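Board notes (copied after class):
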Amino acid sequence: MFSFKNTATELSYSSEFKEFLRGIKISIPMLLGIIPFALVLGTQAAQKGFSALEVPLLTGLNFAGGSEFAIIEVWTQPPQLLFLILITFLVNSRHILMGASLAPYIRHLPNRKALPLLFFMCDESWALSITDAHKNNPRNPYLGFSVFFYIGLCFALYVMWVVFTTMGVGIGAFLGDVTKFGFDMAFPAVFLVLLRGMWKGFKPALPWLVSLIAAALAYLYLPNGWYVLVGSISGVIAALFLVGDEE
């Protein structure tokens, strides 16, 4: 017997799966830039004594490339745990702002679903999903946000990051320092692409410029890791003042 309810459910599942696949498809160009960067991290971790088991634990439980590089850079034997926790917090502090900006898009979801989405959030999935929401519904981006598109992005980025950082352990033993091949330039290129996709003109980008200058000065004159927090806070303050001026 024909059931409208079953048909509607099947169409819903089909639509969700298509959005999931679309997220994976959109992530492919980004992955091409991330893979070399992941190999660099795995190589550097191996040089610090990390095993092929410990690297995926590092990259899988702390899914944030910037803080992982910072940890590897200051890693000692025995590790200084409090210092490593502080560095991780400072470098990952941008996720506080990113999570706050993403929260309105997923506020309709219960915590048991929203919290895992926030755990797997990274710079690329955050930027691409919000940009996609604005394209889908410019008047009300919150309605244009596709949860399954976001999940597809997170799935592809997470799996590729963990797999290729682990592969970097073996590749580093074979090739040595892979940065001599220019692999370390891949991640800055990825961020430039993300910024280009979010570009709305020079004036809205002024907080980016303020954040860049503040972060650069902090990088030169403050201890390792502080530049992320200084740059983030400076950008937010600049944005608040600019919004106030426009109103």
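Comment from the instructor: The mean pLDDT is 81. The radius of gyration is 20 Å.
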